[in-house]
Design brief:
The protein has helices spanning about 10-15, 40-50, 60, 135-164, and strands at about 5, 30-35, 80-85, 90-100, 100-105, 110-120, 125-130. The protein is an alpha+beta fold. Helix 2 crosses helix 4 (about 135-164). The termini are far apart.
Length: about 160
């Protein structure tokens, strides 16, 4: 599918993600990934902080409000907590979480899993998989749109984790 992969290897596509447990036969499957020059312990708080803001293109996703550039010390996410906030509105719900390892939420009919994979030399692979049951044509448009927004989000989370 157009736009279904960015920054991921074949082995990262073949691995199991928590979102796979919630959607059988998804029309949309999209994988994104980025290498972060920071240990998973430094990346996780930023992933968990997507509960406050989208961290993508704030002028689109967040009605011009800036996503926080400092950690605010949120408690660990729990199943049932809001998944994110955009434009001042709480959106989605967390459906699965393993603090320090993965955060899976649902928003607007899609499920997405952020997975942290520690690497050598205090680096981390930050992976994101999005799945959704929808029509084939809608899946193509959603995949392309998600590619643009998710790429920006992962690059922002990378930058913030590496900076701190």
């Amino acid at each position: 599918m157009i736009g279904d992969r960015w920054g991921v290897s074949d082995s990262e596509i073949l691995r199991s993600y928590p979102c796979d447990d919630f959607v059988t036969s998804p029309a949309l499957q999209a994988w994104r990934g980025v290498g972060v020059e920071a240990p998973a312990e430094a990346v996780w708080p930023w992933v968990a902080q997507v509960r406050l803001a989208p961290y993508s293109y704030d002028w689109i996703d967040n009605l011009g409000r800036s996503s926080p550039r400092e950690l605010v010390g949120l408690p660990e996410p729990q199943v049932g907590d809001r998944f994110t906030t955009a434009g001042g509105r709480e959106l989605g719900r967390i459906v699965s979480v393993e603090p320090g390892n993965q955060l899976t939420g649902t928003i607007m009919g899609a499920l997405m899993s952020y997975v942290l994979v520690p690497q050598d030399h205090d680096t981390t692979r930050l992976l994101l998989k999005v799945v959704m049951q929808t029509s084939r044509w809608a899946a193509i448009g959603l995949s392309i749109g998600d590619l643009i927004m998710a790429r920006r989000q992962l690059l922002n989370l990378k930058l913030l984790a590496e900076r701190h």
